[in-house]
Amino acid sequence: MKTPRRWPAFVVFGLFMVSGIATLLIFRPSPTSGSAPLDGASLAPRRTNADATPPAIPFDATTPRLVVRATKSIPHDTAAFTQGLLFHGQKLLESTGLEGRSDIREVDALTGIVRRRVPLNVALFGEGIAVAGERLYQLTWQSGKGFVYDAASLAPIDSFAFTGEGWGLTSDRAVLYMSDGTDRIRVFSAPGFTPIRSIHVTEAGHPVWMLNELEWVRGELWANVYQTDLIARIDSQTGAIRGWIDLSALHSIEALRALRARGAVANGIAIDTTHRRVVVTGKLWPWMYEFAIPSPLMP
Predict the structure, then answer these.
(1) C-alpha distances in Å from residue 43, one per residue of 33, 39, 49, 143
(2) CATH 2.120.10.30 matches 68-297
(3) How far is residue 85's CA from residue 214's CA, in Å, rounded to a whole number?
(4) Is 80 exceeded by the pLDDT of residue 26?
(5) CA angle 80, 86, 90 (to 5 degrees)
(6) In angstroms, rounded to a whole number, what is the distance separating the alpha carbons of residues 241 and 203?
(7) Which pLDDT tens digit goes with each residue over 267-285?
């Protein structure tokens, strides 16, 4: 009887390792088998237009730039994530965002007190507003749904659908202009919300994106550029930027830093043509600011 052959220990260990690796390769789950993705790519949050990096504006140093200073400060609800602001006659209307906190409200233009509010469904994120005729239109951010109210009473009367993201909204009393966080402003019929055309906004040939809250001023579209202190004055026919309104001097440097630290960025432009004034504010700002604009720019 032969004695069984004894293999050296290092050979046995090597065979064991090879066998284990082969087993892993054979039984490794496929990424499509329902197991968790290996690289985690599908777990990344869905990107939106708000995830873009703000443009390095202004692109042209020769574009007129007006630095404004407040002539009056009006208290503002620091819980209001402002998405739209407008005067309807002498009523100051505001829309706010964030799920569970979105609403349309009438605000006292002297004291900042909220006189009445109409909340949105808690699942919706409110966005810009505009008045056309006697109707108040309101966008939502990602639901593709908008709402129509009686502009006088704020009573809900209708709804409408649209594609893409909803950001800012304004009207020239004939049609509606909508921003979506890109360099594009879409024009819609009112009523009906039927697409008419698009305007691509540029300065010195460079697209200007992150366009947010909108206001109509004498043939121009004024737009907050998200995460900046600048309002773009846009030619409503060509999309070319005619000038900038700089809001950075409304706050001290320390106050501005504190606001930015909590995401409290400029957003909200309301033109009072009767008293020839502009009122601006921002998301979570403690104040609304009133200032005068030189006569050539006023309605």
Answers:
(1) 16, 9, 19, 21
(2) yes
(3) 9
(4) no
(5) 115
(6) 5
(7) 999 999 888 899 999 999 9
